[in-house]
Design brief:
Helix content is 39%, strand content 15%. The structure holds NADP nicotinamide-adenine-dinucleotide phosphate and ligand G4F.
């Protein structure tokens, strides 16, 4: 069978001198969790992935590595479960990627978003403090914290002005990470990552919504794709490049906070032009604006300055925006064709 996204896994790095390390990943079933697990396995880590209870399995993104990682039940809403997994599995590094991560949903479920994306960070930090304060901690912070931006481009010192309950929750997660670092001397790092995408991106996020929509239109299943604000601009990178930055942050002697970004910004309109062209289509024939996808408050422009990550971590992105969009469209064309049989 051709074309399922699973076949397009990131290259697994060679085993290195870090073979004794044990990493625990919350959010391992998500986009970033799956790429990070691959990266860490390639570096010789024992990888423990936290999965929350669900009535059906949702391991699609990690099915290809499932036999190489240990999956353990726990939930960011339940501190005891986090304490237990740390006690049982004794990781040396914890990557907190779990969150209610969709901005639009954060308006309809603001309390759940706060419980998971904000207070969940305190729960995992407390579990680390109680079980083993030597554990190195990574918090998945977000460029959404910059929101209504105070300066362009945004860097580590740019003031925050979040524009959604999600952004507000991420600001809390960032500051509680800084606070536990300063209060308890934890090796706790906040990675302020700008948007990063891949064929494993959830279907509700705009890049994947467009690439999947293009594939359905190209295969004759749909004719129109309804979107919201076409003018908003994002700094979009490739998820596999960004998880490398997360790992590099925890290899530093001193914990710190880093912006990870490409330094380029593109509008949703440009995304549409590129994605439809990749399938030989004219986006203007198919895209319609539907106000259901407009947000109560928008982040109009994000573009990051990753100088600190370049200079301190030696991090560089490898995949540029046109290549990312083409890869996502190709993967979704394969996926839709395979579903059609
Ligand atoms: P994602 O695909 O939405 O994955 C989120 C993960 O969190 C899933 O594995 C989900 O589990 C898990 N989760 C949600 N609620 C949980 C709970 N209560 N307990 C335990 N696990 C829970 O997100 P992503 O794109 O990989 O992003 C990873 C992290 O980076 C998130 O914190 C996100 O906010 C942050 N971030 C992402 C970007 C980006 O552009 N991708 C940029 C900046 C920051 P289920 O599979 O069971 O739902
Ligand atoms: O793809 P999006 O939903 O991502 P957004 O809101 O930037 O959030 C993502 O990136 C953050 C980092 O900055 C992460 F922290 C967060 O977890 C998530 O991964 O929307 C991008 C832009 C927005 O301006 C939105 O209004 O695209 C615009 N857009 C236009 N039409 C749309 C649509 N977004 C979605 N999801 N669906 C639309 O139809």
């Amino acid at each position: 069978m051709r074309g399922c996204t699973r076949a397009r896994s990131a290259t697994v790095a060679p085993v290195s001198a870090t073979a004794a390390k044990r990493a625990l990943i919350t959010g391992v079933t998500g986009q970033d969790g799956s790429y990070l697990a691959e990266l860490l396995l390639g570096h010789g880590y024992t990888v423990i992935g936290v999965v929350r209870r669900s009535s059906t399995l949702n391991f699609e993104r990690i099915a290809h590595i499932q036999d190489r990682i240990t999956l353990v039940p726990a939930d960011l809403l339940d501190e005891v479960s986090l304490i237990e997994v740390l006690r049982d599995h004794q990781p040396t590094e914890v990557y907190n990627l779990a969150a209610q991560s969709f901005v639009q949903t954060s308006w309809s479920q603001p309390v759940l978003t706060g419980e998971t994306t904000a207070l969940g960070v305190t729960r995992i930090l407390d579990a680390i403090r109680i079980v083993d304060p030597e554990i190195r901690f990574y918090q998945a912070s977000s460029s959404e914290m910059f929101g209504k931006v105070h300066e362009v481009p945004q860097k580590e010192t740019t003031p925050f002005y979040p524009r959604s309950p999600y952004g507000v929750a991420k600001v809390y997660g960032h500051w509680i990470t800084v606070n536990y670092r300063e209060s308890y001397d934890l090796h706790a790092t906040s990675g302020m990552l700008f948007n990063h995408e891949s064929p494993r991106r959830g279907l509700e996020f705009v890049t994947r919504k467009v690439s999947h929509g293009v594939a359905r239109i190209a295969c004759g299943l749909d004719d129109k794709l309804a979107l919201g604000n076409l003018d908003s601009q994002r700094d979009w990178g490739y998820a596999a490049d960004y998880v490398r930055a997360m790992w590099l942050m925890l290899q530093q002697d001193e914990p710190a906070d880093y912006v990870v970004a490409t330094g380029e910004t593109h509008s949703v309109r440009e995304l549409c032009e590129l994605a439809f062209a990749a399938a030989g289509l004219d986006w203007e024939q198919h895209v319609v604006v539907d106000e259901r996808f407009l947000r109560p408050a928008e982040v109009d422009l994000l573009v990051g300055d990753a100088t600190k990550a370049h200079e301190t971590l030696g991090w560089r992105r490898e995949v540029d925006f046109p290549h990312l969009v083409e890869t996502m469209v190709e993967a979704d064309l394969d996926l839709v064709r395979a579903q059609l049989g």
